[in-house]
Amino acid sequence: MLLLTFISFHCFILAPIGVDASSKVRNSLLQCNKLNYYNHKSIISHFFVHLTFDGLNQLYIVYMGEKKHKDPNHETASHHNILTSLLGSKEEALNSIVYSYKHGFSGFAAMLTDSQAEELAGPEEIPGTLHAVAKGITVVFSAGNDGPAPQTIKNSVPWGQSIFYEIQQNSNFTGLVDGYSCDADSLNGTNISGEIVLCYAPDLAASTLPRQSLPSAVSNVISAGGGGLIFAQYTVNILENLYQCQGIPCVLVDFEIANKIANYMSTTSNPVVKVSPTSNVIGMEVLAPKIAAFSSRGPSVAFPGVLKPDVAAPGVSILAARRNSYFFDSGTSMACPHVSAVAALLKSLHPDWSPAAIKSAIVTTASVRDGYGIPIEAEGTPRKLADPFDFGGGHINPNRAADPGLVYDIDPKDYIRFFNCTLGPSDLCDSSTGQLYELNLPSIAIADLKTTVTISRTVTSVGPANVVYKAVVEPPAGVQVVVEPSTLAFDGKAKIRSFKVTFTATRRVQGDYTFGSLVWSDGADHSVRIPIAVRTVIEEFYADTS
Fold this sequence. Notes:
Elements: E1 3-7, E2 11-15, H1 21-28, E3 47-51, E4 58-63, H2 72-87, H3 90-96, E5 97-101, E6 107-112, H4 114-120, H5 127-134, E7 140-142, E8 161-167, E9 170-173, H6 184-187, E10 196-199, H7 202-205, H8 210-223, E11 228-233, E12 250-254, H9 255-266, E13 279-282, E14 290-291, E15 311-314, E16 318-322, E17 325-329, H10 332-349, H11 355-364, E18 377-378, E19 384-385, H12 388-391, H13 398-401, E20 406-407, H14 412-420, E21 444-449, E22 452-461, E23 467-474, E24 479-484, E25 487-490, E26 496-505, E27 513-521, E28 527-536
Helix pairs in contact: 2-3, 5-14, 10-11
């Protein structure tokens, strides 16, 4: 007797008997996976959720996946043991526990302090999602909004899909007096009443991110009586923060445009600006898609042998239902539902496909170029061409994913072997499991290539019965890549083929990651591409002080 609520793409929320989840969960503004979507702290271990109550302790609910014992009493005893080791005595454990879930799954509810919960909390990559994948349920994670710095990606377990978000083909433009950084000191003593203020301080920009400095500049301009502002920024897109302009004209420009405006002001005795209504440019006139600047980036710190993220999807200025109205928002929380929906459509088209096959279809058919054939860019400081640590396989392409030609499938048992040697109990680890990059993923990441590494992959044909694929390799710089065999033939009987990829460092250097790809092409309708990331090393443990 419990209530199980599936919360979109973040987590399960479990409420024990006697808890009115419909009100408690809503009123507590629960959020999962540390996304801080509602600006409220949450801790996750397995599926780890809490409901806020008055007082020092709070009710934390821990979902631990499938039962490990047939006898429910043994399951309850395991919950008591966990709390006893945390709290120091059986008496405190018994006083803390509120309910044990011991029939359909394993978990418990307990009253804990924040510090106790933090100590109990485990890795974010919750094993409950592994159980879901083992039962054929596709898991899609948000990758985080902490970019553009590298190694900021969240949720990097190999059995889920980590989603980045990107800017789509619609940009807002508006028309165009001097406020330097537009802080209180800069505006003090200057009459800006009713004027449009240029906030242009490139020498200070490096110390504050645009998302943090824009709201402050807007407030200062409004307090000083300004009628609007032009805010100079790095070449990063923050249009989704325009709601922070508090109703005054607010134009965001990069430093190159701001420099032209400043030159005009310095050479004109009475500089003026015309503020026009916003117009939308939609379609091929806009260079898009792009990877948004604050989309978290790879590589994965926890699992460098798993290339993350997996794919990018629309996630900037997305109109969505919220409470009893609609709201524009941005983030991987907006991109993730797009991929979840595509996964659901693929499952309806191909009911026999596993979660790994669905993930493979999405990753291997993603686009790395825009509508003009130009490589997709990644916003940031500086702006650059996107690489696999920015967008994984590329920009999601649902139509192509419906007919991928080949898929890289994975038996859930392989995930479990990986889990037991990383996040799981060490006594269940099989030393013969091998390296992470040996999982049959639709990507390859080698974090420490010294000399030569050979990796096996297996593909399953889901296209025409009789077809021949040829390998097309774009090797990472400084690495030789050989595929054997370089041709894969499929017929009505043979649907599965394996191949080996050998990576050899061509230079003995302590390098950084370089990128490439492997494409299996049938010369007609199918081009099955996986991204590759390789770092060459001489020493495994070193400090780069250059």
